[in-house]
Automatic annotation (TrEMBL):
InterPro entries listed in its UniProt record: AAA+_ATPase, ABC1_TM_dom, ABC1_TM_sf, ABC_transporter-like_ATP-bd, ABC_transporter_C-like, ABCC_6TM_D2, P-loop_NTPase
PANTHER family on file: ATP-BINDING CASSETTE SUB-FAMILY C, FI20146P1-RELATED
Domain called ABC transmembrane type-1: residue spans: 1-183
UniProt-recorded name of the protein: Uncharacterized protein
Recorded GO CC terms: membrane
UniProt keyword annotation of Nucleotide-binding present: yes
Gene3D superfamilies: ABC transporter type 1, transmembrane domain, P-loop containing nucleotide triphosphate hydrolases
Domain ABC transporter: 229-454
Single GO molecular function: ATP hydrolysis activity
Main location group: membrane
SMART domains for the chain: AAA
Transmembrane segment boundaries: 21-49, 55-74
Length: 456
């Protein structure tokens, strides 16, 4: 989960779409062009060398020199281009903000101040842009110098040293020198492009080196027999520099108890549940049926706990794939679960699910998922938050009747059915500030739960 907290979905999608596109299609093409231009340079140099081998020396020297020039040009050119982009954004932002606030500027009579500030932004951008153009021209001058040096050398060689040279061969060498700079230029352009595009490979490789969840631990057969859960001095924060969102929690839930967790938004209810399924590392210990859950493999632990999440997730696929994605249950069990939640929408299990189902219907499919799993620990994370009152009543009936044999933890904001629970935990700022059976908590005069209940 830390990975998803740190990497926004846009960035992840970008890696799996654009970066993969670069690796699959654009990078091979760049490599192909790079090699093509390289072959072009080698071809021209060999052709020149067949006329007079001593021309190889200036060709190689000049090319080595140009490699160094190119190295500087790429670094400086890229940095200047980046600066140009960077200084352009404030300029455009300034224009937009000025246009938006024209009336305020005029009534405050600060046109001159703004003009000066705009000029500063403009000057900065223009100087970067000018520096980039200068850099480009300097590079083109170097290319021209390369041609001139080679031509001078060839002409001196032919005029002063080689009397037997025919006009045709001289013409061939001179024309080929002119043809040398073009593939050279593209070769360097392609090298730069190739280097830039290789960053996509680096970024994808980064994803292969992510910190992995440890899957080590002991798988225990027939575990858990009884589902009593105990939090022992549990503290937790999402980031190392953040205050603890759960603080030294110590409490226990008995086997088959129906527990409601109540509290203001941001009080730490979901975080408390995420410790139970080990979505994050936490301090302290949690025991289920006297086994420290940190000693179990996470997959095994999670397979023993059903979670009906706050936001129902439906996959594009059939009804069967949605309720029983691992194909572990019989058709009868699935139909039984569907009839328990009164979903009369579907005729066969192989019917494709319409992703535009209402939130209520999606929520009921998620409940079906939990029903067929028949786990001994079931968590409802604000499942009743966005459902109508009939569905809310149905969900409550499912908790008390269908999950009678399971330990149920339900996070809830709506307190209409609070009396149906055996235990209520009121959480605030990561600590449990009130706990007990709902009827006695509701009787308390200035109790937190009774106040919340009265307000609702
Ligand atoms: N992924 C996260 N990264 C950093 N902080 C988080 C993250 N998720 C929650 N928090 C913070 O942890 C605290 C507890 O959040 P949590 O979601 O557990 O509260 P909650 O009681 O379940 O709230 P809600 O009722 O709105 O779902 C809040 O201050 C929240 O801002």
């Amino acid at each position: 989960m830390e990975f998803f907290d740190k990497n926004r979905i846009g960035i992840i999608l970008n890696r799996f779409s654009e970066d993969i596109l670069y690796i699959d299609e654009i990078l091979p093409l760049t490599f192909f062009l790079l090699m093509g231009n390289f072959a072009g340079i080698v071809g021209v140099v060999i052709l020149i060398a067949t006329v007079n081998a001593s021309l190889l020396i200036p060709c190689i020297l000049v090319n080595v020199f140009m490699v160094f020039v190119q190295m500087f040009y790429v670094k400086i050119g890229n940095a200047l281009k980046r600066l140009e982009f960077l200084t352009r954004s404030p300029l455009i932002g300034y224009i937009t903000a000025t246009l938006d606030g024209l009336t305020t500027i005029r009534t405050s009579r600060i046109q001159d101040t703004l003009r000066k500030e705009f000029d500063q932004h403009q000057d900065l951008h223009t100087s970067c842009s000018y520096m980039y153009t200068c850099c480009e021209h300097a590079y083109h001058m170097m290319q021209a110098a390369e041609e001139i040096i080679l031509l001078t050398f060839a002409i001196i060689l032919f005029l002063a040293l080689d009397d037997k040279m025919t006009a045709g061969k001289v013409g061939l060498v001179l024309s080929q020198i002119f043809r040398l700079t073009m593939p050279e230029h593209f070769f360097y352009v392609m090298i730069t492009r190739f280097q830039n595009q290789m960053i996509t490979v680096e970024r994808i490789l980064e994803y292969t080196k992510q910190k992995q969840e440890s899957k080590d631990g002991l798988v225990m057969e027939h575990w858990p027999k009884e589902c009593d859960i105990r939090w022992k001095d549990v503290s937790f924060s999402y980031k190392s520099d953040q205050d603890h969102v759960l603080k030294h929690l110590n409490f226990a839930i008995k086997n088959k108890q129906k527990v409601a967790i109540v509290g203001r938004t941001g009080s730490g209810k979901t975080s408390l549940i995420s410790t139970l399924v080990r979505l994050y590392d936490f301090e302290g210990s949690i025991f289920i049926n006297n086994v420290d859950i940190k000693t179990l493999p996470v997959d095994f632990l999670r397979s023993k706990i059903s979670v009906v999440p706050q936001e129902p997730t439906i996959f594009s696929g059939t009804l069967r794939e949605n309720i029983d994605p691992r194909r572990q249950h019989s058709d009868d069990d699935i139909w039984k679960a569907i009839s328990n939640v009164n979903l009369s929408l579907f005729k066969t299990l192989d019917e494709k699910i319409d992703l535009n189902l209402s939130i209520c219907q999606k929520q009921l499919i998620c409940v079906c998922r939990a029903l067929v799993q028949r786990n001994k620990i079931v968590i409802f994370d604000e499942t009743n938050a966005s459902v109508d009152s009939d569905t809310e009543a149905l969900l409550q009936k499912i908790i008390t009747e269908n999950f009678a044999e399971s330990t149920v933890i339900a996070i809830m904001h709506k307190l209409r059915y609070i009396l149906e629970f055996d235990l209520v935990l009121v959480v605030d700022k990561g600590v449990i500030i009130e706990s007990g059976d709902p009827s006695s908590l509701l009787k308390k005069k200035n109790g937190v739960l009774s106040n919340l209940f009265r307000k609702q």
